[in-house]
Amino acid sequence: MASGLRVARAALLALAASAAHCAFELRTIVVDGDASLPDASADAPAPDALEEGPDAPPADGSSPDAPSPDVPAPDAPALDGGGPDAPALDTGGPDVVEPDVPSPDAPTLDAPDAPDSTGACAPGELRCNGACVDPGINDDHCGACGTVCSLGTGCVMGRCVSITRAGAACTMPATGGGLDPAACGNRLRCISTETTPMCSLACTNNSSLTTERNACGGGNATCLSYGDGSTARSQCTQSCSPGARPGATLACRSGFLCTGWWFTHATSTPDAPGCVAFCANDSQCPSGLRCNPRDGVCSVRGIDLTKLADGMPCDPTMVETPPGYTVRRNYQCRGICFNIIGARPTEGVCGSFVNLALSPSCPDSPSTITPGTADTPDNLGLCIERSCVRNANCTAPLVCRYYEDDLGRPATGGPSACLPPTASQPNGRG
Questions:
Q1: What values do phi and psi take at 194, rounded to 5?
Q2: How far is CA 15 from CA 42, 70, 130, 380, 411, in A?
Q3: Environment class of residue 47 by beta-carbon count within 10 Å: exposed (0-12), middle (13-18) or buried (19+)?
Q4: Who is most buried in 242, 267, 339, 394, counting CB within 10 A?
Q5: Are 338 and 320 in contact (CB under 8 A)?
Q6: Is the CB of residue 176 less than 8 Å from the CB of residue 190?
Q7: pLDDT in tens, 132-168
């Protein structure tokens, strides 16, 4: 992990992921040592406590609580290891996929723009026509100055390749995946997300990116997986680069965020990054819904700044059904109430997610709460832990304590944060 959050292992217990809600719903985070993942059946909240997505009815007129087979419903336990049912595939076979070779239509210039040696560019960039560009993702200078990718292709790792329909915007979502061939082709289906519908398909995570691309319709697609093993949830989407500028081939479209779901994996090792739904403002939500940028979800409620700020203590077991919602969940925080110690389910800390492509800082107390990030480039930050030097910097029952190893021994030479007390540090730093 990078600065701020020192998560040795993040445990995904209740990631609410349905056609109407694939939100970042993390219930337990282990902050000390290298503890084993807790048993999901023991620590997972009751089904009616899981978060539900927006209550706006689906486009097909079905019940808003009806889950999509593409991904598991948030209020179903989904702990039996069964993966989501993939929507039926057309018997006519997948869309034709262009090979990952330079586009034959890309114009060949007799005298391509030579890199300009004047001025320094960042490592890996070239200066073309007086501007620094990344030749790995720039459609106008793909691999070299002046190499332009033609219509229908884009620059991926310095080569012009066919563009995937996975992750593309669509307009006809339905339970099980709607048919929207104009947007999604004959293979992918239109599914609802926390923001706007996208073309996708249930898939299986694979170490081969080529295998994932073929399963997801080709081009620059990827199978993005959150979680591990039999409880992992995977879906096709567009692969992305966290450093891509808006409009580039590997940049996510409005209302989506580039991440490898690092915090959902036991080793905190990110998957190949892909675009996931995550709103930043109301304009990225369907009509009538509002955005909560703390969890990236469009709903009837949006963000409530009267709730507890990040770093404040909360009780994940306290649930309610506020006006406009149909299921009970925890609404104590502006973001999410995270259970920090699985064996003590009532002890939590409020936290939020942040899209680092839009803001490098946490929304509450940015001078003392630093985004936890992946070890590799990623646009997802996690804001939970407030740095401290004494208990007075924290809100009871949180105390200012050092991080601990897997044997419960405090790392007194390192930083400290506002966390629940432990057996070795019952009184914090005084």
A1: -70, -15
A2: 15, 14, 46, 16, 31
A3: middle
A4: 339
A5: no
A6: no
A7: 998 988 888 999 999 998 766 778 778 887 788 999 9
Per-residue CA distances from 265 to 8, 77, 235, 260, 277 (Å): 11, 19, 16, 10, 19
* pLDDT at residue 66 tops 90: no
- Six token digits for residue 376: 């590799």
Q: Are 64 and 20 in contact (CB under 8 A)?
A: yes
Who's near 265: CB < 8 A, 6+ residues apart? 10, 12, 227, 228, 271
Among 7, 12, 1, CA closest to 232: 12
pLDDT recorded at residue 62 = 39
User: What is the SS3 assignment for 229-274?
Assistant: HHHCEEEEEEECCCCCCCCCCCCCCCCEEEECCHHHCCCCCCCCCE
Distance CA 235, CA 85 (A): 11
Return the residue matching tokens 């219509």.
151
pLDDT score of 269: 77
CA-CA distance, 70 to 335, in Å (whole number)? 26
